[in-house]
Amino acid sequence: xxxxxxxxxxxxxxxxxxxxxxxxxxxxxxxxxxxxxxxxxxxxxxxxxxxxxxxxxxxxxxxxxxxxxxxxxxxxxxxxxxxxxxxxxxxxxxxxxxxxxxxxxxxxxxxxxxxxxxxxxxxxx
Length: 125
Hints:
CATH architecture: 2-Layer Sandwich
Radius of gyration: 14 Å
Number of domains: 1
Number of helices: 4
Structural class: alpha/beta
Largest sheet: 5 strands, mixed
Number of strands: 7
Order of helices and strands: EEEHEEHEHEH
C-alpha cells in the first residue's frame, strides 16, 4: 500500500506528493493533515511544493484542509506552492477564492523557478 503522503528533497525544497485520487472521506483528509503537519514540524522554515497531480476528486473538507494548512504553514514561517491541479480542483479553488491564498503553479518545474526568482529578488532588494 502506498503512503498517502510522500516526499523527497529537491535541493533545499521539499516536494510533497498527495498519493490519493479521491480525497472524499474525512478519515483520508485527517490523515493527510496529520502527515503534512508532521513534515512541516520536522523541517522548520521549509519550502514546500505540494503536488496534487493524483488528486482528481476532493470533498469540501479537503479544500478546508488546504486553507487551514496554508495558515499553519505561514505560522511556522514556511512557504508552500501547490502544483499539478486537475481542472475540477482548480475551478473549485478559483470559485471559492482559495487561489488568493494558495500560491498555485502549473508544474513542479514552474514552482522551482518561482522559488529561485524569490531568492534572486531578495538578493537584489
